[in-house]
Amino acid sequence: MAAKKKAAKPARKAAKKAVRKTKPTAKAKRAANPRKTARLWLMFPQRLITKPVVWELSQKFPVITNVRQASVTGEIGLVCLELDGLANDVKKAVAWLERRGVSVEPVEINVIES
Questions:
Q1: pTM over 0.70
Q2: CB-based burial of residue 100 (10 Å sphere; 0-12 exposed, 13-18 middle, 19+ buried)?
Q3: What are the beta bridge partners of residue 89?
Q4: Domains observed in the chain
Q5: Which among 102, 87, 107 has a CA at the least distance from the CA of 41?
Q6: For 55, which of 12, 14, 34, 61 is 20 to 30 Å away at the CA?
Q7: How do the residues of the chain divide into helix, strand and coil, expressed in percent and rounded to 5?
């Protein structure tokens, strides 16, 4: 009987090792979702000018926000915003801005080079 118990233990260990190898590593996850930096023009409608939309964005998504340029009047807000993070997170953040009513366009040229 003792021989049966010893034979069962190595089989369990081998099964556990096989399961561990199938999980993707952190490096593999990063390769599938590389970092991205996007420079965007954001146009805020009048109803959103006084709202902390960029702050909300930084709280909801793991992206780094950097305001490159801004102009706000009583009727419209125009912001050049740089977003840095994982490609999926940047994409989700842009979609969230558009759902809020912010018009989002890519920056075609470097407006301000620092």
A1: no
A2: middle
A3: none
A4: 34-106 (3.30.70.260)
A5: 107
A6: 34
A7: 45, 30, 25
